[in-house]
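Subject: Sanity check before I submit

Could someone independently write out the structure tokens for this chain? I want to compare against mine line by line before I put it in a report. The sequence has 99 residues.
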Amino acid sequence: MKTTIEKIEGFNLEEYEDGSSVLLNSNSGIVHLLNTTASLLYRLCDDKIDKELLFEKFIGEIDLSSGEITIDEIRNDFEAVMKDFTDNGIFDCKKEEKL
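---
Independent answer below. Compare away.
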């Protein structure tokens, strides 16, 4: 079984130089403040995408050369943001049978 991620329509993203963003739900008027991690993940999810592919795209955007952060720490941040996005109706997560 694989998990796919898809953006829910009706959100507008305003990005700032420091990497953070504001995400406005134009239907409800609710504003979400996104840190740099969440902003990057939101930008990387263009269309319906496999969750593991999104994680690989995310890892590819991070400089790991300093050794200050582990893949497990990055995975934990990724999973936390995905949960927040799903819980707040920003992303739709679906489990699908592999064919």
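---
OP: Matches mine. For the report I'm noting this point. DSSP finds three helices and six strands in the chain.
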